[in-house]
Amino acid sequence: MKQIARPEAAITKRRAFYWVWRFAVLAVICALIAVVVIRAFFVDVFSIRSDSMQPTLNPGQSISVDRRAYTDSDPQRGDVIVFDGRGSFLPYARSTVLDDLTGALKLSGSSNSYVKRVIGIGGDTVECCTVDGKLAVNGQPLDEPYLYPGDAPSEVNFVAEVPAGRVWVMGDHRLVSQDSRSLLGASGGGMISLDRINGRVTNIIWPSEQRTEIR
Q1: What percent of the chain has pLDDT over 90?
Q2: Most buried among 61, 122, 152, 167, using CB within 10 Å?
Q3: 207: nearest Cα among 41, 47, 71
Q4: Is the separation of the CB atoms in 199 and 68 below 8 Å?
Q5: Total count of domains within the chain
Q6: Please, are residues 141 and 117 in contact by the beta-carbon 8 Å criterion?
Q7: Residue 27 pLDDT class (50, 70, 90 cuts)
Q8: DSSP of 109-159, one letter per residue?
Q9: Quick check: helix, strand or coil at residue 183?
Q10: Is the separation of the CB atoms in 160 and 180 below 8 Å?
Q11: Who has greater pLDDT, 47 or 88?
């Protein structure tokens, strides 16, 4: 004899399904919020898409960026940083909450972000080149073991005075890097404002066999 489900059992089953569905949606929302908070205030992840930082960083690699690195201190010479190029490398445009949200969720590209090495900080005079063909900061030649093999420190001769609150940046692959040298004579002179710096690059995290600390 065929049994007919009682209405009470059907209602209980629907309620159980509703609460499972509701819990799953809430878990997804909480996870997304956690991702946004972590990436906005603690550690972010960026993908390398250009050759400008070779051999230190190569296309296809993913890097971790410490967003707290400059909370209580300023960038130091030699730091590899990620910064927002708007207002220096790109025309100025203030980011919106939607920009920050979609960027954190990887729903938008990272076309505004750049990765370069800090060569000069506020108060420094950076120039190229010494009689030995090296960059000099405050008259002292730089030893740059991170340069791409065969590259000169710079193909462009320049003298740049870095104002307070800004940094002078260059790529490690000098021959192909578009960096502070490219904006000499422009408004801001190619200097990056400290408030546009997202953080310091700490590690290569992908591919897994290439994981290493960045110095």
Answers
A1: 56
A2: 167
A3: 47
A4: yes
A5: 1
A6: no
A7: confident
A8: --TTEEEEEEEE-TT-EEEE--TTS-EEETTEEPP-TTSPTT--S-SS-EE
A9: helix
A10: yes
A11: 47
User: In the structure, what pLDDT confidence band is assigned to residue 55 with cuts at 50, 70 and 90?
Assistant: very high
Residues 137-150 as b or e (16 or more Cβ within 10 Å = b): beeeebebebbbee
pLDDT band at 8; cut points 50, 70, 90: low
Q: Is 116 a catalytic residue?
A: yes
Closest CA to 177 of 44, 48, 37: 48
Does residue 2 have an active-site annotation? Answer: no
d(CA 30, CA 36): 10
Q: Say which CATH number the domain at 99 has.
A: 2.10.109.10
Q: Kindly state whether residue 192 falls inside one of the protein's structural domains.
A: yes
Tokens found for residue 50: 């250009």
Question: Domain for residue 36, yes or no?
Answer: no
Catalytic residue among 88, 116, 154, 180: 116
Q: For residue 61, what are the CA distances in angstroms to 97, 115, 117, 212?
A: 28, 12, 17, 11
Q: What residue numbers bound the domain in which 97 lies?
A: 42-213
Q: How far apart are CA 29 and CA 197, in angstroms?
A: 29
Q: With contact defined as beta carbons under 8 Å apart, do 185 and 194 qualify?
A: no
